[in-house]
């Protein structure tokens, strides 16, 4: 039995990046031997085991053969006779097909180290074309490593176009498309993901709403949000707002809702995207709003109970209107603090109750909002 560290852990260490997960390949073992050694079997389609102490994944070396459509249309063969080189050959990119043995020696039969140095994303073998998910994966790696100036090899782009021209992309489930998209959104260069899909004619098939965002203005906005620490949720909200900028509010909100249903995005992604579309202009011009509009905005965003929404939206709004984050809704925290000080118990002690209590709370909160633009902008009267 021989055990090798493989995939992202080896790649990221060679790139000087933080290693998050460790994946292992076991050569020369049977499932029975793994179980006897204390490993817990968890794989459904092929033999994968969890280490009894670290819970890291250990997979038996295997080969695969295309047997149907889509990324699930494969038959796997795991045996003690399968070599490490055969296992590495089934991987997507050469930079992901490097192994390391227990002595720290690298096994690199497909030139992954050379491609790391050249900053090239290159497929391992022609079998790359058999898995449509790899179109999304390569686009995602292009986004992840854009800061390191990686590019997709021309011959790999050709295979990605070949996949796009077939019907294989139609077999990708919304969940798998979203999983790759969300991971790309979490990078500093999510538009590289969109650009890569556009180059191989896959964007129109998978994420048509975003195809037109392959432009300088969108890149500038997304870049600003990334510099301000924007996460995947915020980048999604920004991209959907950029994609619907030419639509009226009702049409834009409907398109965002339909998109979120189709790609099966989590509710928090949908909600932030909708809120950003509805309220970004009011947040951008908050100090200039009338008192009634300010109070309505606070209520619609439920900011007295959910002030964290403001911190999520602020850098997104700044990226949309191309201004500094600190200039968005400046002074609103002071306003919210004063509005929160309007205590129902105190008003009840003053004799208010029922409908009159609610009306008095709103009256006093409105008075706070009306104390002049100077209060809204954080300046003293």
From TrEMBL:
Superkingdom, taxonomy of origin: Bacteria
Keyword terms: ATP-binding, Magnesium, Metal-binding, Nucleotide-binding, Nucleotidyltransferase, RNA repair, RNA-binding, Transferase, tRNA processing
Gene name linked to the record: cca
Function field: Catalyzes the addition and repair of the essential 3'-terminal CCA sequence in tRNAs without using a nucleic acid template. Adds these three nucleotides in the order of C, C, and A to the tRNA nucleotide-73, using CTP and ATP as substrates and producing inorganic pyrophosphate. tRNA 3'-terminal CCA addition is required both for tRNA processing and repair. Also involved in tRNA surveillance by mediating tandem CCA addition to generate a CCACCA at the 3' terminus of unstable tRNAs. While stable tRNAs receive only 3'-terminal CCA, unstable tRNAs are marked with CCACCA and rapidly degraded.
Any further remark recorded for this protein: A single active site specifically recognizes both ATP and CTP and is responsible for their addition.
Binding site for ATP: 8, 11, 91, 137, 140
Top-level class of the enzyme under EC nomenclature: transferase
Name of this chain's protein: CCA-adding enzyme
Cofactor: Mg(2+)
Binding-site residues, Mg(2+): 21, 23
GO molecular function: ATP binding; CCA tRNA nucleotidyltransferase activity; CCACCA tRNA nucleotidyltransferase activity; magnesium ion binding; tRNA binding
Annotated CTP binding sites: 8, 11, 91, 137, 140
């Amino acid at each position: 039995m021989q055990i090798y560290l493989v995939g992202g852990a080896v790649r990221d260490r060679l790139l000087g990046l933080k290693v998050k997960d460790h994946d292992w390949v076991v050569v020369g073992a049977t499932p029975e031997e793994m179980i006897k050694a204390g490993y817990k079997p968890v794989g459904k389609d092929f033999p994968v085991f969890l280490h009894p102490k670290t819970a890291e994944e250990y997979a038996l070396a295997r080969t695969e053969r295309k047997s149907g459509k889509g990324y699930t249309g494969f038959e796997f063969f795991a045996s003690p006779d399968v070599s490490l080189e055969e296992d590495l050959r089934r991987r997507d990119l050469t930079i992901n097909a490097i192994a390391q043995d227990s002595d720290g020696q690298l096994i690199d039969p497909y030139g992954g180290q050379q491609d790391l140095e050249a900053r090239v994303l290159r497929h391992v073998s022609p079998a790359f074309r058999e898995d449509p998910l790899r179109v999304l994966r390569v686009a995602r790696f292009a986004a992840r490593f854009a800061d390191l100036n990686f590019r997709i090899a021309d011959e790999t782009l050709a295979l990605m176009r070949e996949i796009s021209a077939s019907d294989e992309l139609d077999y990708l489930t919304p969940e798998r498309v979203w999983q790759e998209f969300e991971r790309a959104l979490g990078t500093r260069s999510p538009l590289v993901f969109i650009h890569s899909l556009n180059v191989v004619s896959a964007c129109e098939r998978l994420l048509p709403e975003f195809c037109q965002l392959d432009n300088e203005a969108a890149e500038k906005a997304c870049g600003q949000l990334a510099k301000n620490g924007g996460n995947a949720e915020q980048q999604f909200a920004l991209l959907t707002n950029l994609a619907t900028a030419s639509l009226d509010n009702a049409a834009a909100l409907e398109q965002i809702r339909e998109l979120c249903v189709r790609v099966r995005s989590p509710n928090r992604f949908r909600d932030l995207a909708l809120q950003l579309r509805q309220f970004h202009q009011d947040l951008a011009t908050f100090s200039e709003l009338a008192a009634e509009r300010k109070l309505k905005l606070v209520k619609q965003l439920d900011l007295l109970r959910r002030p964290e929404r403001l911190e999520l939206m602020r850098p997104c709004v700044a990226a949309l209107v191309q201004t500094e984050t600190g200039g968005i809704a400046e002074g609103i925290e002071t306003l919210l603090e004063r509005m929160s000080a309007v205590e129902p118990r105190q008003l009840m002690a003053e004799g208010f109750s029922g409908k009159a209590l609610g009306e008095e709370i709103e009256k006093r909160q409105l008075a706070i909002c009306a104390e002049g633009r100077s209060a809204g902008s954080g300046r003293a009267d």
